[in-house]
Amino acid sequence: MKRSLIAVSTLLFVCSMDLLAQAPVPAKDPRLGLWKLNLAKSKFANPAPNVRVASYVARADGFTV
Q1: Residue 62 lies in a domain
Q2: Domain count, the chain
Q3: How many CB atoms lie within 10 A of CB 56?
Q4: Which of 10, 23, 48, 61 qualifies as a cystine partner to 44, CB 3.0-4.6 A?
């Protein structure tokens, strides 16, 4: 009796961990945020811009602005 209780408990624990591992997690979009151009790492034809800053924000309707 005790052995079967341990086996069933272990099986339920493993199954529940398996289901939790498969639960989808909303991923953060890596494009979102404030982006600043690094002129030292960029290659431009003349004339290079002085400063370039871009901001990307997720809207409620699913689009990125």
Answers
A1: no
A2: 1
A3: 13
A4: 48
